[in-house]
Amino acid sequence: MKPQYFVGILFATSLYWMYLLYSPFLLVITIAALLAISTSDIQGLFERLFKNKLYAAFGSSFLLAVLFFAPLGYFLATLTIKLNSLEPQVFESIELYINNIIQNPPKFLAFLKPYTVDYLEEIDINSLASNALSITGTVGAFSAGFLKNAFLVIIFYFFAQYNGSTIVEFLKRVVQMSVDETTLLSKELSSVMSVVFYSILINAMFQGALFGIAISFMGYNGLLFGIMYGFASLIPVVGGALMWLPFMMYEFATGDSANAILIALYSILVISVVADTFIKPLIIKEINTRLLKDDDARMNELVIFFAIIAGLATFGFWGMILGPAITAFFLTIMKLFEARTIECKEKTN
Fold first, then answer.
1. Taking a C-beta distance cutoff of 8 angstroms, is the pair 284, 301 a contact?
2. How far is it, in rounded angstroms, from Cα 215 to Cα 235?
3. What is the C-alpha separation between 227 and 303, in angstroms, rounded?
4. 161 neighbors 34 (Cβ within 8 angstroms)
5. How far apart are alpha carbons 77 and 74 in whole angstroms?
6. Domain segments of the chain: what residues?
7. pTM tops 0.90
């Protein structure tokens, strides 16, 4: 057997066992690596500031935890606590309230009364309570799982920032690609991921702050619901409507029509129209201009938008990072094929 074949078999065997060993953490490691690529400029800034790569990695990891994971962790923990503290009497009150609305609907909904009476008889408070408790347990389990994964992402992110340059240089030596090709691949992926990450983060914080400030004047927890609105705004098409619509309906239900109309108008005009339609493109354009000096490295905003939608549909929450990364990687490989095809044609001629 030739030595290179033996080494190839050893490599394939070791790769298989490495997969078995780290398969539970592959998604977490991938997310951490992509986040490290996205924030490589922050790591570079901290390295120049602290003059120490270890301190810089600690600084960038802490910043990521504070800006990205801490708000969502706070939201999930608060939601879980609130749901677990609900008493069975709450569900009875909800049933009584629904019964009253159905029996004495507002004038503009009076035409629905013949259809709702039959449905009212089918409502079972015991099943309602059991379903609600089941949802509570599901939310609690999801929150615990997310916080665990978030902690692991921070850990792997730290190691990626601390050892990232060494790993990249090693891969450049191992992978059978030219220096120009590896540079193009890393540049394209880093550029797209930086734009996606900063655009998502800044827009979510901006819209969440607008909603949180407004809702706090109505007596609600502005921090909690601002965070919820920020993450809801990441969902294409429906976005913030998942937040302001229930608030509007609740205010109407409690008889405060003025607050309900104010929430709807403020969310639609100020956040959806002004912030999302006019200010958001300016933010993305500014990020593109500052981060990407080379026009060839830029990905069309529409492509990024559909990549985020596809990622969310396929991978869930982490899809907003995985979708653009996979798309950018594919398009870069296509560019490499194109360059090699042109090179082969030139050699042939």
1. yes
2. 20
3. 27
4. no
5. 5
6. 24-174, 177-349
7. no
